[in-house]
Specification:
Layout (H helix, E strand, L loop, with lengths): L1 H20 L5 E8 L4 E8 L5 E7 L2 E4 L2 E4 L4 E8 L5 E9 L2 E8 L5 E8 L2 E2 L4 E2 L7 E8 L5 E5 L2 E2 L4 E8 L5 E8 L2 E3 L2 E2 L5 E8 L5 E7 L4 E7 L5 E6 L5 E3 L2 E3 L7 E6 L5 E8 L1 E9 L5 E7 L3 E4 L5 E2 L7 E7 L5 E6 L5 E9 L5 E8 L10 E7 L5 E6 L8 E7 L5 E7 L4 E2 L2 E2 L13 E7 L9
Antiparallel strand pairs: 1-4, 1-41, 2-3, 3-6, 4-5, 6-7, 7-10, 8-9, 9-12, 10-11, 12-13, 14-17, 15-16, 16-19, 17-18, 19-20, 21-22, 22-25, 23-24, 25-26, 26-29, 27-28, 28-31, 29-30, 31-32, 33-34, 34-35, 35-36, 37-38, 38-41, 39-40
């Protein structure tokens, strides 16, 4: 009898624990950003106080709640700050004849760093980048404090050619790391390409905006994403990594044009190791956890994903495209790889990791690709530190055409997702209003939504 009671108690414990594990959080709040023309959401970041920062670009004007930004030209970028409860605190803008913000990071003091590129010149309000007076593009990195005041903005020097910043990350000391693509003789201090060359760059800036060092590598194409671990290790993803090269302790043979690269640099910019990723339709994002591991996500179209040093990741036979999630140790040792399960096809758009090592893959589901009324549904999938699926949360309804552009997570596991939508999607208890774009414009409205950390929602 005693044994039966013990077994019954154990059964109840496991049942209750499993139900708790399977609970899915609710959307806490959702905000919209609208513009009378094309608008692009690009990136999101969360500081240690839970404040939310978002960046993107817009045409002539932009409305964020009670704040309206009026651009000085027809090409403008914005940076906005919300508190943890979703209240808009401030918004800032910069303008050029052609300007884009691509990436955003926040440091431990709540300063925000925005990276992108501009053409000819750029007006940041209290500071202007003169550019080089031609039609080529120039990368920029701007730092704002927590009150929205511009601290500094920098751009690399060059004689000719151009540079484009695609991603920025910040370490614990407030140093910023910038990566992207440079062409011809674009330069970062003494780090320069020889004539008629194009390739990857990585640059470090001090908290005061001074260039500390830079790497330029013509054997690699463009840096697409970047993250920094707690020990100062720098991880970047590189597009079109087909060239044979020696990278630190790694020797890579000739690959395919579609290959991606995950590469690690030391805190001083020395190449340490690289791993090639094949058959991925782009890498949606990378992030590091508290153990110093690096995780990456992307979309798998082929039947098999191959990553250096690891076992092949197989796509389920019944799926057309599927998101994948993989993990390497700080020394480049393969840890695990998996596909992100769920109903229908899942296209990965972004990745974030919380303080306990759980990862969040955000993207959109193609639940019924042949039915336009069930196409492009926003979804977020939480995975445990060993890659096991915990829950998947999606937007209610059909026919909304949501696209995810970025996701961020705080230490406790609350997540913030940004993207665009059409129609009237429902985020928990909030149904967003439909916004009709003027004739000739195609981009939808921007949404900013926060998912709670606690398992207080519906069961999976």
């Amino acid at each position: 009898m005693t044994k039966q009671l013990v077994l019954f108690g154990l059964f109840c414990f496991l049942l209750i624990n499993n139900l708790a594990w399977a609970q899915v959080p609710d959307f806490q709040w959702t905000r919209t950003v609208v513009a009378p023309g094309d608008m692009f959401s690009k990136d999101v970041a969360v500081d240690k106080a839970g404040n939310v920062f978002v960046t993107g670009s817009y045409f002539k004007s932009l409305t964020l709640g009670s704040i309206q930004l009026i651009g000085k030209t027809t090409s403008n970028i914005f940076l906005a700050k919300y508190n943890a409860a979703g209240t808009l605190i401030w918004a800032r803008s910069a303008s050029s004849s052609d300007i884009q913000s691509f990436s955003l990071a926040v440091d431990a003091q709540g300063n925000a760093f925005v990276a992108g590129w501009f053409r000819t010149s750029a007006d940041f309000g209290t500071s202007t980048l003169a550019g080089h007076g031609d039609e080529h593009l120039d990368a920029f990195l701007a730092k704002y404090d927590g009150a929205g005041q511009l601290q500094w903005v920098q751009s690399p020097d060059r004689k000719e050619g151009e540079s484009r910043a695609h991603a920025v990350a910040v370490d614990a000391a407030g140093n910023a790391y910038l990566t992207g693509l440079a062409e011809v003789v674009s330069g970062f201090g003494t780090a320069r390409f020889p004539a008629a060359k194009t390739g990857f760059f990585l640059a470090k800036y001090s908290p005061a905006g001074q260039l500390a060092w830079a790497q330029v590598m013509e054997d690699l194409y463009t840096g697409s994403d970047i993250t920094v671990d707690n020990s100062g290790g720098i991880y970047v993803t590189v597009n079109e990594a087909s060239n044979a090269l020696t990278f630190g302790a790694t020797k890579l043979g000739k690959g395919r044009d579609s290959d991606q690269l995950l590469a690690k640099f030391s805190s001083s910019g020395t190449p340490e190791w690289a791993r090639r990723i094949s058959s991925a339709d782009g890498i949606g994002g990378i992030a590091t956890d508290a153990k110093g591991r690096v995780l990456l996500t992307g979309t798998l179209v082929a039947d098999t994903l191959r990553m250096d040093g690891g076992a092949p990741v197989l796509k389920p036979k019944e799926r057309g495209v599927v998101a994948f999630l993989a993990c390497y140790g700080a020394n480049g040792t393969w840890q695990w790889g998996t596909t992100v399960a769920g109903k229908g096809d899942f296209i990965s758009g972004a990745l974030a990791v919380d303080g306990t090592g759980n990862s969040y893959v955000a993207g959109h589901l193609l639940e019924e690709p042949n039915d336009p009324a069930a196409y492009h549904t926003l979804a977020v999938a939480k995975n445990s530190p060993d890659g096991k699926l915990v829950w998947t949360r999606k937007v209610a309804g059909k026919g909304h055409g949501e696209e995810v552009h970025a996701v961020a997570a705080d230490q406790a596991g609350s997540t913030v997702v940004i993207g665009k939508y059409f129609g009237t999607p429902t985020f928990g208890a909030t149904t967003l209003p439909k916004y009709t774009l003027p004739s000739g414009f195609q981009e939808g409205c921007m949404f900013v939504t926060k998912l709670a950390a606690a398992s207080a929602g519906k069961k999976k």
